[in-house]
Amino acid sequence: DQQVKQNSPSLSVQEGRISILNCDYTNSMFDYFLWYKKYPAEGPTFLISISSIKDKNEDGRFTVFLNKSAKHLSLHIVPSQPGDSAVYFCAATYSGNTGKLIFGQGTTLQVKP
Amino acid sequence: DADVTQTPRNRITKTGKRIMLECSQTKGHDRMYWYRQDPGLGLRLIYYSFDVKDINKGEISDGYSVSRQAQAKFSLSLESAIPNQTALYFCATSDPPGRVTPANTGELFFGEGSRLTVL
User: Do B52 and B66 form a contact (C-beta atoms < 8 A)?
Assistant: First the structure.
């Protein structure tokens, strides 16, 4: 049973435009969500996170939105740059379980120059 | 040098062979994890350890074992490798929640991965 789902395996956008990556979850206990970015031949690296007490968290070009009622979160990248081309993983956990993350399948983002 | 180091980075082996993947870290974290990545399945947790005396199974531990030799070392073993264990394996570390650090989000810090192919 996939508790964290990224239903879009891939996304292609033009440089300078907005990239929106989506993630859905089923476990209502999840209260902390993270996004990781992974380049080929490298390990995933932390990008941005959000606690369930918030509905938005912003860090430079990256913003994560959380809709708890819909059990949905999204990552917005504005403006998108070619260097953002990577695989993006959504992950979730709950209080007391921090570090034991449940990951989605990943979405491969391609930003075209 | 990487904070989380995995060896080997690539390994090709045959069905039935014993394989060990090693992980060492210089971040001083108590918690260590082994994940595997498969296309279309994302990252799945195999085993995790919250300190040297603590070992826990993750969601896909069958066919694997681990050893926490020291705070900085966590190894993953496949006692008798089979082809469906062909995957990319990642070691990761984290701080426990509540430890006072400037930015402890509980995030995981990953190694660069070990690609294992079982023929």
Answer: no
Cβ within 8 Å, pair B113-A101: no
Partners of residue A103 in chain B, C-beta under 8 Å: 35, 42-44
Residues in chain B: 119
**Residues B43-76 pLDDT 10s:** 999 999 988 999 999 989 999 999 999 999 999 9
- CB-CB contact of A77 with A15 (8 Å): no
* Residue A89: C-alpha distances to residues A39, A43, A104, B50, B78 (Å): 11, 12, 6, 23, 26
* B37, two tokens: 């990545």
User: Number of Cβ pairs closer than 8 Å across A and B?
Assistant: 64
**Which residues of chain A make contact with B97, given a CB cutoff of 8 A?**
96, 98-99
The residue written with tokens 């939105």 in the block is: A65
pLDDT digits (tens, 9 = 90+) for A13-58: 999 999 999 999 999 989 889 999 999 989 999 999 998 899 999 9
Helices (H), A1-113: none
- In whole angstroms, what is the distance from residue A11 CA to residue A30 CA? 26
Give the nearest chain A residue to B109 (CA atoms): A45
Nearest CA to A2 out of A26, A21, A22, A29 is that of A26
